[in-house]
Amino acid sequence: MSPLLRTRPLTSLLLLATHQCLLPSRVFVNGAALPADENGWTSVERPEPPVEVDVVVVGGGYSGLTSAYELHQAGLSTVVLEAKDRIGGRSRSHQRESGPGIVELGATWINNSTQPAIWELTQHFGLETLVQYTEGDEVLQSPDGQVVRVPPATGEEEESPEPEDIVAALINEAVEEVDIRQFADFPEDQDVSVADWIALNGLWNESGIPELLSQMTTTIVGREPNETGAHYFFDYIKSGYGLESLGTETEFGAQFLMLAEGTTALARKLADAMTPGSVLTDAAVTEISQDDDTAIVTIKTGKKFKAKKVIVAIPTNTYSDIKFTPSLPSEKAQIVSNTMPGIYAKMILSYTEPWWREAGLVGKFTSLVGPIRFSWDTSNPALSQYSLAVFIAGDVATEWHALPDEERQQTMIEHLAELVGEDLADYALDVLEVNYVEWTKEEYIWGGPTSAMAPGMLRQYGTALRESFANLHFGGGETAYEWKGYLEGAITAGQRAAEEVVEALGSGGKA
Ligand SMILES: Cc1cc2nc3c(=O)[nH]c(=O)nc-3n(C[C@H](O)[C@H](O)[C@H](O)COP(=O)(O)OP(=O)(O)OC[C@H]3O[C@@H](n4cnc5c(N)ncnc54)[C@H](O)[C@@H]3O)c2cc1C
Questions:
Q1: DSSP class of residue 281?
Q2: Largest CA distance in the chain
Q3: CATH T-level topology, domain 51-88+261-340+450-508
Q4: How many other C-beta atoms are found inside a 10 Å radius of the C-beta of residue 84?
Q5: Residue 438 exposure: Cα atoms within 13 Å on the Cβ side
Q6: 20 pLDDT more than 60
Q7: 88 CA distance to ligand 1 centroid (A)?
Q8: pLDDT category, 363, cuts 50, 70, 90?
Q9: Is there an atom of ligand 1 within 6 Å of 59 CB?
Q10: 281 lines ligand 1 (CB under 6 A)
Q11: Which residue among 2, 21, 70, 332 is least crowded, i.e. fewest CB within 10 A of its CB?
């Protein structure tokens, strides 16, 4: 492709394509010209020529946008095709109706030391961060429904270890052993579900352990312990620096910082930094066909895009919505049909005042009963935005999704009122605004925070997950080595896929 064409904005490519269609020309069928009508038009509809770019990126989430941004920086022409009417994918910041500020319906937290890629981007685009609120007691509900208030740990507790401490220690030990880059090394006899693995270690029948494990796996990957592969679970935990990192809001915790403008602001900054008109929404890809050096990508309207390379940056469970010609290699196809989008919903309850803070609570409500599984304080006091983000996951979420619309929100509010106790219940019930997304019902995504793997899948097919297939390269958070299921993983996977393409095509398309 000439340098001129490479730097031409996509909008002008689209105009060029339209203009070419306006020129009357004659259509031949079996060597004979069809008669033209009096205006010089034929009665046969001709397909528009495909829009031509160096690289098509499928999916306008963080991973796809990062790939396109990197390719743009390298001088390659790109188009991002996003199925939904918005970019950001599993990140979705929503402007509040009852006052200033946003609420996060998908991804929220980042970390400046353990997640360097997203941190670098937020700094590059000058986005402000807020530190997670940490003052006060947590509230825990045990499987029998009993609710207790738990003060912050001092480090001086000398109690004998509870069964949950033993389970956590066991999992931490297994996590230590896992190599997140060598999937085949995981011992085959341990390659069972999390539930079976705990049973192999003689703990499944201990009181409260099944409920505790359900809390852990559904909270972390959105699936129950009997569905989630132990190898996959350990790999996922290690990829996020361990259980403590994943579960905490400390300086090294995954819940340390929030973006004041919302995570979607970063997605928009990435899109705005690229050629105008090169990120298309309402553009669900239905087909990708490829030959030796070209790929043709078709979207639902029938419009076609021709490219030297394609980056597929969508959740692995959604590959099945695209017709690939030739078909994906069998190993990759196995992964597609065996990854399970997490069953997940997130509700933001906004209030006029931070009543829980005033009562000495940090805003962390954990229940082994449900429907609320866990929660965090997501307030921005500078804007008088006071909110709790409550999460529903796994089988509890499946039941909750099936409730009638009006009951769904009420059940959550009433559960919060139960967790805070009689003295604070009225405050919990006095909600200012409710916003939520049932990620399991979101078209083109179908769950969150990630697509989990069943037993055996990672050991057998982990390598195939991110392998390219001729002109197709694979990004998406699920293909990350580190921080899979997080924005950081989506970004690094997008960068890796872009690097593969630049290596193949050369900077500016010069191989
Ligand atoms: C409730 C919730 C809370 C979370 N909390 C956090 C958090 O606090 N911190 C954190 O780091 N991460 C969090 N995550 C995870 C994080 O949001 C994801 O890991 C990340 O957004 C994944 O990015 P992605 O680009 O890989 O995929 P996605 O964001 O899913 O983007 C893929 C895009 O592809 C599009 N698509 C699908 N099929 C097609 C098609 N055929 N044609 C065109 N487009 C298609 C989809 O519409 C989507 O926009 C959370 C996720 C959820 C759901």
A1: S
A2: 94
A3: FAD/NAD(P)-binding domain (3.50.50)
A4: 19
A5: 14
A6: no
A7: 7
A8: very high
A9: yes
A10: no
A11: 2
Ligand 1 in reach of 84 Cβ (< 6 A): yes
Q: Is the pTM of this model over 0.85?
A: yes
The answer to whether the CB of 209 is under 6 A from ligand 1 is: no
pLDDT for 368: 96
- Residues 219, 147: contact at Cβ < 8 Å? no
Query: What is the residue whose two structure tokens read 């033993």?
Result: 166
Please give the single-letter amino acid code of residue 265: A
Q: Please report the atom of ligand 1 found closest to the CA of residue 443.
A: 47
Task: Give the tokens for residue 76.
Answer: 């390659």
Dist. CA 89 → ligand 1 center (Å): 4
Q: Is the peptide bond before 371 cis (omega within 30 degrees of 0)?
A: yes
What tokens does 416 get? 């919060």
Compare 19 and 332 and report the one with higher pLDDT: 332
415 contacts 367 by C-beta, under 8 angstroms: yes
Tokens linked to 405: 């619309």
Residue having the nearest C-alpha atom to atom 5 of ligand 1:
107
Which of 87, 90, 104, 392 to mutate for ligand 1's pocket (most ligand atoms within 8 Å of CB)? 90
pLDDT over threshold 50, residue 2: no
Amino acid in position 178: V
Nearest-angstrom CA–CA distance, 434 and 197? 39
The reported pLDDT for the residue numbered 259 is 98
Q: CA-CA distance, 80 to 494, in Å (whole number)?
A: 12
Strands 109-110 and 257-259: antiparallel
Q: Is the CB of 82 under 6 A from ligand 1?
A: yes
d(CA 466, CA 478): 9
3-state helix, strand, coil in the chain (%, to 5): 40, 20, 40
Residue numbering of the annotated binding site: 63, 82-83, 285, 391, 478
Peptide linkage before 341 cis (omega within 30 of 0):
no
Per DSSP, the residues of 410-453 read HHHHHHHHHHH-HHHHHHHH--SEEEEEEGGG-TTT-SSS-EEE
For the chain, what is the mean pLDDT? 90
- Tokens representing residue 460 in the block: 């057998």
